[in-house]
Design a protein that fits this description.
UDP N-Acetylglucosamine Acyltransferase, domain 1, repeat
Length: 345
């Protein structure tokens, strides 16, 4: 896709200083700018790159004045970073403007496909599936029996939506994620072996959820595993059966959440966090990376460590953790002095 500086300024409601007809076809970092690319400068720490970049167009914030001669055309906007994010969103929308059914797809006769839908090659859509309007399903996806996908959602290649999974509107699910596989349910037998407990529930993903690549969200044993509106999940996250994650919570990579735990709204959970099953995590909770949580957590708590504890207490304690060998040495010396004094007495 190729745009002139004037067209981009129109999209961003900006003002041009330089060549309005210069054309760009790609986005770049300012330090990696090449002819035909557009970049931005929002942090003045990187201002020096503006005088060296080969980018054709650079977005800057209102009030910025170059200290040296520059080559790029400038587009002045209220906030350069926000404007560039808007441009990224526009670029993504343009890239995902696809429609039609590619060859080598298999769609069951009972499936209901909305308007302006794209289905990539080698995708399989099972019986009684409902696909909304403006949905994009990239190649090599599996859409199981009874699955529904809401309007405007994007399903990237390699995703598997197992039977009865419900995906809301404007969701994004990245490659190789599996939603609705069996939960980890096994019952011990008298001989020490384990018997599988049938997993007959489903997964419900509400509107405006984004799920990263290679995540797994298990179906419920009974009822539903639920991801509420606005939740954002990073790559490689495991969510077990009957978990519920409430609105606008964000979770970083490699976190694992065990069965039947309920996580509140607007929580921030760092990478590699482990949360045991059947817990209740409150609203607005922050859990630092690599923490292990094994107890219920009240609203607004900030946790750190494994097992996790209050973040402020952890940081205070960490000072002592680092000095622990010296503390033990001092205690040993004090103990020796006490013993010697006792002998003298």
């Amino acid at each position: 896709m190729e745009f002139t500086a004037l067209e981009i300024a129109s999209i961003l409601e900006g003002k041009i200083v330089g060549q309005s007809d210069i054309k760009v076809s790609k986005l770049s970092k300012i330090e990696e700018g090449t002819p035909g690319s557009i970049s931005f400068l929002s942090n003045l720490k990187y201002e020096q790159h503006l005088y060296e970049t080969e980018a054709s167009v650079v977005i800057v914030s209102e009030g910025f004045t170059p200290e040296k001669e520059i080559n790029p055309t400038l587009i002045y906007v209220a906030d350069a970073h926000k404007a560039f994010v808007k441009l990224l969103e526009y670029h993504s929308q343009m890239r995902n403007q696809k429609s039609g059914i590619e060859p080598n797809t298999q769609i069951h006769d009972s499936a209901k496909i909305g308007e302006n839908v794209y289905v990539g090659g080698f995708t399989y859509i099972s019986e009684n599936v409902k696909i909304g309007n403006n949905v994009i399903i990239y190649p090599n996806c599996y859409i199981g029996e009874g699955v529904s996908v809401g309007d405007g959602s994007i399903i990237y290649s390699g995703v598997q939506l197992c039977s009865e999974t419900q995906i809301g509107a404007n969701c994004t699910i990245h490659s190789n994620t599996v939603i609705g596989a069996d939960g980890f349910g096994f019952s011990p037998k008298a001989d020490g072996s384990f018997e599988k407990v049938p997993q007959i529930g489903n997964v419900i993903i509400e509107d405006n959820v984004e799920i990263g690549a290679s995540c797994t969200i298990d179906r419920a044993t009974l009822g539903s595993t639920i991801i509420r509106k606005g939740v954002k999940l990073d790559n490689q996250i495991q969510i077990a059966h009957n978990v519920e994650i409430k609105e606008n919570t964000v979770i970083a990579s490699q976190t694992g959440i065990a069965g039947s735990t309920k996580i509140g709204r607007n929580c921030i959970i760092g990478g590699q966090v482990g949360i045991v099953g059947h817990l209740k995590i409150g609203d607005f909770v922050q859990i630092q990376a690599q923490s292990g949580v094994n107890y219920d957590v009240p609203n607004g708590a900030k946790l750190y460590g494994s097992p996790s504890m209050d973040a402020v207490d952890f940081r205070k304690s960490y000072v002592h953790f680092r000095n622990f060998p010296a503390i033990v040495k001092r205690l040993d010396e004090i103990e020796k002095e006490i013993k010697q004094q006792t002998i003298k007495d």
